[in-house]
Amino acid sequence: xxxxxxRVLKSACALAGLxxxxxxxxxxxxxxxxxxxxxxxxxxxxxxxxxxxxxxxLMFFKGPKHDFVALVISEDLEGGEVWGGQNTAGFxxxxxxxxxxxxxxxxxxxxxxxxxxxxxxGECATVRxxxxxxxxxxxxxxxxxxxxxxxxxxGACFFETGRSSFEKFDTRDPRVAPFGTIVRTNFAFxxxxxxRGGGFDRFERITRLLDAARAQGRLDLRFILRQASRDLVNDxxxxxxxxxxxxxxxxxxxxxxxxxxxxxxxSVSAIVFEGAPSRDRADLATMWVLLGQPVTGVAVxxxxxxxxxxxxxxxPKTAPLNDVALAVAAYLYPDGRGRxxxxxxxxxxxxxxxxxxxxxxxxxxxxVLERTAAKWSEWAAKKPxxxxxxxxxxxxxxxxxxxxxxxxxALIKPGSPDR
Length: 419
What we know:
The structure is a single chain. The chain has helices at 5-22, 113-123, 127-136, 200-215, 221-228, 320-332, 346-351, 357-381, 386-407, and strands at 29-33, 44-50, 56-61, 68-73, 85-87, 92-97, 145-150, 156-161, 166-170, 181-184, 255-257, 267-274, 286-291, 299-302, 343-345. The protein is globular, with a radius of gyration of 20 Å. Residues 1-24 have low confidence and may be disordered. β13 and β14 (299-302) form a beta hairpin. The chain is α+β, with helices and mostly antiparallel strands. It starts with a helix and ends in a 12-residue tail after the last helix.
């Protein structure tokens, strides 16, 4: 089966529509896992990014104090706003929109969130630096965000932030995080109105997932990528499309409504940050990026210390890995009538190519994880040169892209940007 570029773009536009309809700028799902709670002793920070533009890519920036890698919207050619990133000091930042911290009367809706994160990545080395930046810039920015930050010292905190105030939530504080984890979606605990905000269903779902993984000693990168970011369960209506029997009639496929799941129809990327093992090895802080809806792509690693980013994760317009993911998304969301594009075809997800989409993604991602784990161990024993890190991340991303193009060749039109 072949899907042309116009259909991919049509589907992408449809996917963008929901965010505009519901009026949420960035209804993301976030989690912080402290070093003491993670399976390997490295702090973890994760974001499923939901927004109206399905085209995301990475950019490398030269900052005033620290160089950094960040996620941007592809059409933002100058990278004026970033939506999560990590710098050479091992500091990383992410956010979710928290409209309940804004002020509709004063038209404060978080318009400065992305630019503020770019400022932080260029200046901050630690959580303390970020807190000092919030104090210094208080009242100067239109901010309505749950900012998550980690550093090479093992710090992992959320800051619920409005224009003129913020509140810190530290994973080291047993009153706040007795088990070393904190999650956020699109509401703030410090909001004056508990009925505002959003993402309450996702908050409950990811809390349950993290609690179960922690009890089983599975709070690690693989859990975040495989179970958290790609989760399609809606507990409220007892919907689990991966466990439910498929219909016998191929003309009546199983669909799942993905507006209230963690992997949403407006999820455009996932990023996971693995903290540095120590401050003097900040070069080992790793940023994993999955471009596209999580059930349509694979994660690849980048290191700010490499001084550049892989070609598969960026481009003058769009990123090749994102283009492949859009082709898969167009196949999984085949009905563009009205709001039918909010429904994922679970039958296609589970049967494409005889085995389904996810086994194909996992096969490629397993190779990425295995290669990266082995190389990271080498680097932990002997500090690598920037060129070696750059060559390795380029090799891994290029191999993953080629594997995905082969796995999903039937969905990619020859000659398109995906090729």
